[in-house]
Amino acid sequence: MKKDLQTLAQYKLVLLYILENEPTPFTNDSFTTYVLKNDIMNYFYFKQYLMELEASGLIEENDQALLQVTESGKEALGYFSHSIAKKLLNKAHQAQEDKEETPFENFSGSFIPPGQLELLAYNQDQVVFHLTLPVEGQDQAQRIIENFKAQGKKAVDHVLDYLDPEK
After folding, report:
1. 136-164 as b/e, with b when 16 or more CB fall inside 10 Å?
2. Which of 3, 51, 139, 161 shows the smallest number of beta carbons within 10 Å?
3. Edge-to-edge strand order for the sheet containing 66-69?
4. 10-residue block means of pLDDT along the chain (167 residues)?
5. Residue 12 in contact with residue 49, Cβ under 8 Å?
6. Per-residue pLDDT at 106
7. Beta-strand pair 126-134/116-123
8. pTM to 2 decimals?
9. How far apart are CA 167 and CA 156, in angstroms?
10. By three-state DSSP, how is residue 144 classified?
11. Which positions ≥6 away from 84 have C-beta within 8 Å?
């Protein structure tokens, strides 16, 4: 019984760890895909643990439907991260490294009245780039979206290189 509780805690901690340390935010669906693709745990345990983390106030979904670790979750992770099994941490680290090597797969954008544009880049259904900017109107937004869809990788790389020249 004690071992089962320890395993339960470790899996919840590794989920907190991934959410806190992954540089790009997850939606519920993209986090599910990420965990399953990287064989961190099975679907049913994952959904149960995720629901329990949310119910206990350790994670929450923000206004953009992105999962984030709450202050309580960060505190719990700070206290107990040392107890995460190395095997689980290695899986989490390997998943992060694999994700960093994967190129952007999809680009989209949408006009948000009265004058905002939202641009998104995805990697395996996970948002890896999210930018909101003001525009003069729907015509300008549509031109930018078309260019972003055609040259998204170049645009995202340019923005990231500008913001993080040591990358």
Report:
1. eeeeebeebbeebeeebeebbeeeeeeee
2. 3
3. 26-27, 66-69, 59-61
4. 66 90 82 83 91 94 88 91 78 68 74 90 80 92 88 81 74
5. yes
6. 82
7. antiparallel
8. 0.58
9. 13
10. helix
11. 10, 13, 14, 17
